[in-house]
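hiii so um. not sure if this is the right channel but i have a protein structure encoded as tokens and i wanna go backwards to a sequence. like what aa goes where. can anyone help
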């Protein structure tokens, strides 16, 4: 009875440690994906290629999940797929947040340059302080514009406004190339982008699984080819007798 009581706490502590480790791995996965998406979103201000950010996010999420599945327990196939989808959703959400930041920043700069030009200035390059000065009231103008365009204000309204503009394909934020297909087809394309990202993540998971299985089979073959020297020595002794 005492031995049973001693075993139960040990098993419970092991399960708790496994759960804590699994949660930590999930947090690390989301953190890595969010960090990558933040970097990709920041670069998209200057350079953007359609579908590329989603593909990169899917590849990273698949690689991280596949690695965790090799080194720890709890990563069943269904858990891997759900975690992959969750990681990709977090990555795309971060991309949209950074896009919204670029939207607001670019609008403020345009207002500042317009006010600066109307003031009859000599056309010198504006510094940060001058830009902030001439951009006063830009937030109210943007909110009014979103109210007239979408019917509401805030980040969601700005996202819908960008969706109304069409599908962004190439170029920087200021000189981006857009396919004007309307809000509905832009949202459908976003779902397609998510599907492509998820597909690439699944391909990485399958490749890691196949490589692991091949390594296990090679290890089994090598273990089977090793001769049992002790048995051979006993047979030699028996034949000598």
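sure thing!! here u go:
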């Amino acid at each position: 009875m005492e031995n049973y009581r001693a075993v139960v706490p040990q098993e419970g502590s092991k399960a708790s440690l496994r759960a804590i480790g699994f949660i930590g791995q999930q947090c690390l996965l989301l953190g890595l994906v969010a960090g990558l998406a933040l970097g990709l979103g920041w670069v998209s201000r200057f350079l953007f290629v359609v579908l590329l950010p989603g593909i990169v996010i899917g590849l990273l999420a698949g690689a991280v999940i596949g690695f965790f599945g090799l080194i720890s327990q709890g990563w069943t196939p269904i858990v891997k797929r759900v975690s992959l989808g969750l990681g990709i959703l977090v990555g795309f959400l971060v991309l949209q947040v950074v896009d919204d930041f670029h939207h607001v920043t670019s609008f403020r700069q345009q207002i500042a340059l317009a006010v600066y030009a109307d003031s009859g200035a000599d056309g010198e390059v504006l510094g940060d302080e001058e830009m902030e000065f001439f951009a006063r009231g830009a937030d109210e103008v943007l909110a009014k514009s979103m109210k007239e365009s979408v019917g509401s204000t805030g980040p969601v309204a700005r996202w819908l406004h960008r969706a109304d503009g069409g599908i962004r394909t190439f170029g920087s934020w200021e000189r981006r190339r857009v396919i004007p297909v309307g809000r509905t087809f832009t949202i459908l394309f976003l779902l397609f982008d998510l599907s492509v990202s998820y597909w690439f993540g699944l391909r990485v998971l399958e490749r890691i699984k196949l490589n692991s299985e091949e390594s296990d089979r090679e290890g089994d073959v090598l273990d089977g080819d090793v001769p049992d020297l002790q048995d051979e020595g006993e047979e030699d002794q028996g034949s000598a007798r």
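oh and The first helix runs from residue 2 to 43.
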